Amino acid sequence: MTRTVAFPGLGLEFHLNRVAFELFGLPIYWYGVIIAAGFLLAVLFCYKMAPRFGVKSDDIIDLLFFAVPLAIVGARLYYIVFYLDLFRNAGGSLDLGKMLDIRDGGLAIYGGVIAATLTLIVFCKVKKLNFFAFADVGVFGLLIGQCVGRWGNFVNVEAYGGPTDLPWRMGIDAYVNGAWQYMEVHPTFFYESAWNLLGFLLLLVVVLRGKRKFDGQIMWGYFLWYGFGRGMIEGLRTDSLYFFHTPIRISQLLGFASALVAAGFLIYHLVIQKHTPEELYVNRMKRKAEGAEAPRPQTFHDEEEQHGSDSD
């Protein structure tokens, strides 16, 4: 099915088909292709940046074997819990097939973030790595994935907002009250994609200019930036996940709450608790490596052994 999406204020029009191609008769959707592309870009960037944080690039790959499947499971479970009625059969029973079918959407970002965070905690504990340094790398991957992934929502014609007459409004045919009708709405998928891109660039500048003062700073910066932006943008959307049968938008609640907590940590560590460059995990790893590579100073005992062997 092809759907038309227009931006009348910008003179743009797109004819979108959700199916990218077929593989052995099975439709492969653009949503999945775009998510996969975002994932690949995120992995490549984190692999390249890892040494700046004292993290081995190989550890990034090792983590992915656990984090990726668990993040997908977490994102799907989060979506199912708050949209459970979508997965019921006519008789009220749950449709397991529908629950497992993620080719065409139905992944909640917050569920994936929560699952990935828990996986990273366990991974770092087992391998005796610094969680906060690792997380500082990882959030760049999240921002890339979220920035690119939102365009999957565009192809699916979803994650849009309420009516607006702004110049960049998006014109769509939406199914409302049992009938299809033309609407001009907020392109909230684009708002979030652009917000994530800007956040990625700002945090990257912090790292590249040496403004990172403590391990976890980038992680908390991500939660502050993404949480606040998500909370604001979520208020414009018409397809929010609600906290069961309440008027509370769950992603808006989590967004503002995480931003508030992150702001508290950043204020404490940047204003109250002073940090030195020597505390950073990457610098501690450098000192450790330099110490291991430095030649052991010769002792009196060593000289005695050398003279003894010479006399023999």
Automatic annotation (TrEMBL):
The keyword Membrane is annotated on this UniProt entry: yes
Keyword vocabulary terms for this entry: Cell membrane, Lipoprotein, Membrane, Transferase, Transmembrane, Transmembrane helix
Location, primary (coarse class): membrane
Chain intervals for the UniProt region annotation (Disordered): 289-312
Gene Ontology terms for molecular function: phosphatidylglycerol-prolipoprotein diacylglyceryl transferase activity
Keyword Transmembrane helix set for record: yes
EC numbers for this chain: 2.5.1.145
Pfam family, one: LGT
Parts of the chain that traverse the membrane: 28-48, 60-87, 107-124, 131-151, 189-208, 250-271
UniProt: a 1,2-diacyl-sn-glycero-3-phospho-(1'-sn-glycerol) binding residues: R150
Coiled-coil segments on the chain, per record: none
GO process terms (BP): lipoprotein biosynthetic process
GO cellular component, as recorded: plasma membrane
Pathway: Protein modification; lipoprotein biosynthesis (diacylglyceryl transfer)
Enzyme class: transferase
Function: Catalyzes the transfer of the diacylglyceryl group from phosphatidylglycerol to the sulfhydryl group of the N-terminal cysteine of a prolipoprotein, the first step in the formation of mature lipoproteins.
HAMAP family for this protein: Lgt
Official protein name in the record: Phosphatidylglycerol--prolipoprotein diacylglyceryl transferase
